[in-house]
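hey can u run this one w/ heme C bound, need the structure tokens asap thx
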Amino acid sequence: MKQWRDSLALAAMLALLLAAVWGARPSVEQPVPAFPLSNMAEPLPARSYSPSPVFADGRTMQPPPAGTVPVDALRDATANPYAADAGAAARGEWVFRTYCATCHGPTGMGDGPVTRRGVPAPTSLKSDRVRALTDRELFELISGGRGKMPPYARMIAAEDRWKAVIEVRKLSREDAP
Ligand code: HEC
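ok here u go:
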């Protein structure tokens, strides 16, 4: 008798549980809540070449910001695509201090900290040979490495490698301290 009562109670509990799960399942017909993400639920489509009320110039597809350089141009440029203005020069200095100064030293003398720990010192960047290198040659040297110098194409973005060229030029022109 007790056993029979127990299984009845169990069955009732199971039925309740099923009803709860069934009732709580999301219904397909339910409308998407309008708030707070109504603009994500109902986006405003726009065609690339149609007029736009959103932007000041009235165009939907916005032109790239001033100074934007296409990716292929970065890879294939023969001359430095970046003018040696304050922004590019500061970035170049940062790249050099971060990736190059360990070996080449902060002023390019070839006296970076690792050279005092057994790594063969590179020659000074203030040589006539480095001064004679073109932008493209410097870029390729940084990208592909040479001898004991590792290649940086995978570690430093092309944009930053070109900016490092600005810094190498600056250091190679400066007289040795
Ligand atoms: C691990 C140490 C090391 C690091 C880091 C390093 N270099 Fe070098 N670099 C060298 C060595 C060694 C040479 C000489 C290579 C050779 O000719 O065998 C060299 C050569 C050069 C040269 C040519 C110098 C010449 O006399 O022809 C330039 C320019 C140069 N590196 C720039 C850079 C720049 C820019 C970076 C940072 C992106 C950098 N290097 C990072 C070790 C390094």
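Residues 72-173 form a domain with the Cytochrome Bc1 Complex; Chain D, domain 2 fold (CATH 1.10.760.10). anyway lmk if its weird
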